[in-house]
Structure formats: structure tokens, C-alpha cells
Amino acid sequence: MSVTVRVPAKVNVQLAVGGARADGFHDLANVFLAVGLYDEVTVSEADSFALTCTGPGSDQVPLDRTNLAARAAAELGRRYGIAPDVRIHIAKDIPVAGGMAGGSADAAGALLACDALWGTNASREELLDICAELGSDVPFSLVGGAALGTGRGEKLELLDVGGEFWWVFAAADGGLSTPAVYGEFDRLSPDAPDPVAAPALLAALRTGDVEALAATVTNDLQPAALSLFPSLKDTLEAGRSAGALAALVSGSGPTTAFLTADESAARQVADTLAASGTCRSVRVAPSPAPGATLL
Prior knowledge:
- The chain has 295 residues and is α+β, with helices and mostly antiparallel strands.
- It contains ten helices and twelve strands.
- The strands form two sheets. Strands 1, 2, 3, 4, 5, 6, 8 and 12 form an eight-stranded mixed β-sheet that branches. The protein has a four-stranded antiparallel β-sheet with strand order 9-10-7-11, with helices on both faces.
- The protein is globular, with a radius of gyration of 18 Å.
- The mean pLDDT is 95.
């Protein structure tokens, strides 16, 4: 028997970052938007643990028990007294190490799949609790849609979205370490203020106003990502010149995200970016998208 779950990528339309806490994390006001790029995670009964991965960037995905998907299975099994002897297969389509929460999405997918495979019937609250233990972005990967994440990002308040937003995502040649980006943020912003969600941005999501959203998207980690990966500036400028309404680094990067007026504009921006020589690959996707979904 096997169970397959589809899980979305995310873009941060606002990522406000406070100073480093005593535990090494940072307080955030993190406005997540799930986008229509998906990984599929299949969990099958097996005599012993195994993990496989296919798709773009799969050679960069760890295939041992350190993988977040494997850790998700292990934690659910620990809580219910079930040995996590399963085969996990991840079909990647979310950029790897790109600031779009692909690893977190896979963890949420494996958790939901194991819950269905084992019949544990864990509550949504318990699943979210396990997600929060695994990582700051994992709870949002489970719920999808749009949400404000506070604390280190794991405390979610679901948000209403009044329309569809079209994005272009440009994958860079190379990756960025999230801890390295936060370290550079600390160096560049030693007196970061307490993070607060922008009311104008929340209103733009609620009303579906793409122009208003474009005027309010922000990422406090962007200066740090650009400091460590300066060529991203060329990608951002290429997207703006192609007609994107807003351009920003996605999360900790190095994927860059471009908000466009509609699907037609997104296709035009994508074609121009693909021909610009400033990125490895380009994808177009709408938002919001549903969270982890049993197929």
C-alpha cells in the first residue's frame, strides 16, 4: 500500500525579521503565500527505511534520515509507537535550496502521508505541532493558502486572499545556506526592530489588489542574500525591465520572485528572463495554492 501527497512551494510577500534571540532564532512577521509549484511525496509500506528522490535538483537532496521528510515519519511513528519502516519517494518540482520551502513541503507531505498510511488519525493540531518541531516553514506547507507566521514563523494566522496573483520564479545557478543568510543579516542589521506585519500588504491580499501588493512586498533578508550572492541583482533588474510589478528575493534565496499583472504578463516576463542569461531556469505559477493534499 502507498499514499501520495502533493505539497506546494511558497513565496514570502513580507518577511520582516527581528534581531537574533537567545535561542539563535529570529522573531518574524512572515506573510506566506502558497504557489502552484508542487512536489509529490509517496510513502509506501516497506521492511526497512528507504528514501529516493527524482526531479530537478534531486542530486542535492539528502537520502538518509537527516532528510526532513524522514524526520517527519520518525516523529509521527515515535508518538504512536510505530516503527518508521517506510519507503519515501519525493518527486521534486519545487526548486531545491531556493528559498521556496521545498524541504519543508516534503516534510509536511511525508507527515500527512504517514498519518494516512498508518491510520493514526492525528488531529490537525498535533500534525501542526510536529511540523513546528521540524522547522519554521513546515506548518505553513501543511496548511497552504496564505498565512501570517509569527514567533520564528511557526505560529500561523490564516489570511483571506481576494484574488489570484501570478508569479515568475527564476532559479539561480547555485544555492544559499539559510543560516549563512541570517548570519549576514545579523551583521548588516545589528539593531533590527521588532517585526510587524504591514497593514497595507494584508489589505492588498484581502482585496486581491495586485498593484497594491506590488507596492508593499518586502524581504528583510534580501540585502543579506544580495551581499552573499551579488549576481542576483542582475536577475532582479532583468525582471523589472521585463515588466514585473515587483521583484524580490524569495525567502533566504537565491530564487528570485516577480509579481506580474496577470498570467499573460507572467509569460512575457518569464520569456524575457529565460533569454537574459541571468538565471538557470524560470517557472510561472499562480497563487494562492492549497496546502498538503492527499491524491
